[in-house]
Amino acid sequence: MLQFKDLFLIQIIGLLKNRNFTGDCHARINSRLAKLQFFRGSLINILYQNFERADALEQILWVHEGEIELIPKAHAESDWNFMVDMDEAIVKSSPSMPNACPFMENIFLEKIELNLQDESSFMGTGKIIYSSIRSGFRTDIAHSRKLISAPDFWESLFHLMGSGSVVGDYGQNLSVLLLKVQSAILGNLQKILGKRVAQLYQDCLSQAMDEQWPNFPEHKNYDRIYGAYDRIYGTAPYRTWTRLLGESITKATSTAMGHACYKKALASLNPEENIILQQLLD
User: Fold this and answer.
1) Parent domain of 118
2) Beta 42-47 vs 2-5: how paired, if at all?
3) DSSP reduced 3-state for 44
4) What are phi and psi of 269, to 5 degrees?
5) CB atoms within 10 A of CB 169
6) Whether residue 177 sits in one domain with residue 162
7) Per-residue pLDDT for 253 more than 90?
8) How many domains does the chain have?
């Protein structure tokens, strides 16, 4: 199992719906295992403690940290319209946002295909949010919030994400930032301590990253060109990457100059980038 963070399970359900996933999604929540079963993207059952599936759905939707594993497996179609129960859970128990998960304000939104339920109470605001996202582009969540002052903004956004109509992506933002920091560190190391130390740092960082977040190209887990990880893990891989940027310095060089190269790279960031980086380190 791999960690996920800063991503609600309702969003993961929507991501798997969008992929037409068939199989089991195992989520470890506070040491307890939830088994979500899918058939061609539709959630057909949830096994979690002794709850009935609708109650289990409400129990797990708002978890935004834990461990997850996808297991492709044959399942039969179900007559459960989970979107109806999901909407009820959104009305009854959706968390206060963004307080419940502050980092989600850094997520980018991408629209896929509008899949609003005709009977959904979130159809009105949901269509406005959907229309605010440009086709073929990712829109930061702050942009949509500025355009839409509806009191049910977050609830409607959760509906869009749970239905797979809109997906959230941290890679657009975080991979660019971390590659910028990594490049600055390498440049500083090469300039001050030489090319050999810079290459050693790169090798140590790559090895540590591969050990903690294995490279599974066949699962589309990681794109080495852009540094973008599978969205179902939220910020977890980027938090690991951020931590290893600093830890790998001590493996490449034990001198104070090495740490100075790291600090100089951080100092080159603008205030907004620094805030995001510190949040990833928390």
Assistant:
1) 2-72+80-169
2) unpaired
3) strand
4) -80, 155
5) 16
6) no
7) no
8) 2
pLDDT tens, residue by residue, 111-135: 887 765 567 888 888 888 888 887 7
What integer pLDDT is reported at residue 149 of this predicted model?
77
Q: What is the pLDDT of residue 172?
A: 80
Residue 9, Cβ density class (10 Å: 0-12 exposed, 13-18 middle, ≥19 buried):
buried
Residue 225 pLDDT greater than 60, yes or no: no
Mean of the pLDDT values across residues 78-90?
Answer: 93
Q: What is the mean pLDDT of residues 222-248?
A: 81
Task: Indicate if 188 and 133 belong to the same structural domain.
Answer: no
Rounded distance between C-alpha atoms, residue 84 and residue 103, angstroms = 28
Assign residue 83 a region: left if phi > 0, alpha if psi is -120 to 50, beta otherwise? alpha
Calculate the alpha carbon distances from 68 to 74, 198, 208, 269 in Å: 19, 35, 21, 33
Please, what is the end-to-end C-alpha distance for the chain in angstroms? 22
Last residue in a domain, options 169, 202, 230: 169
Question: Do 15 and 107 sit in the same domain of this protein?
Answer: yes
What are φ and ψ of residue 234, in 5° steps? 60, -130
Mean pLDDT of 69-88: 93
Tell me which of 125, 153, 169 is where a domain ends.
169
Residue written as token pair 């991501």: 15
Per-residue pLDDT tens for 180-208?
A: 999 999 999 999 999 999 999 999 998 89
> Based on the domain organization, do 155 and 22 belong to the same domain?
yes
- Angle, CA of 163, 164 and 170, to the nearest 5°: 130
Q: Are residues 229 and 133 in the same domain?
A: no
